[in-house]
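Entry:
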Amino acid sequence: MAQKVTIVVEKGKGDKNFACFMADELPGFGLAGYGHSAQEAIDDLHVALKETREELTNMGQQMPELEFDFKFDVGSFFDYYPLNVTETAKRIGINASLLRQYVSGVHVPQAKQLQRIHDGLVRMFQWMDADSLISKPTTAYVQI
């Protein structure tokens, strides 16, 4: 059975500056990835995983199977998921200008504001019920 590991993905200062790292300590190794986007950082983390596994194998050690649980900061979340920041802010009840500042890294949200964003996104995703999408071509719903 795979060991669950929390991976934090964060946007650093400036454009195109993303990193991800293990939040959990495992004996004998650590993993990190870097890139110009959240996805690139995650991809680099997978390269680091492969290289670390090979290195440990060459040393006669075995790496446990890992299952990643990704946690995103606000900037990396909006980079990873293609959401319009302004429209999302309206939907979740956050000032759009402030949310853009959080996404760009100009300001870092405090715990209370971060919880507000989280709760708003949860409500938004519940509202976006995938079961409401049609399951067959539109013409199948029309009676002629």
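DSSP finds five helices and four strands in the chain.
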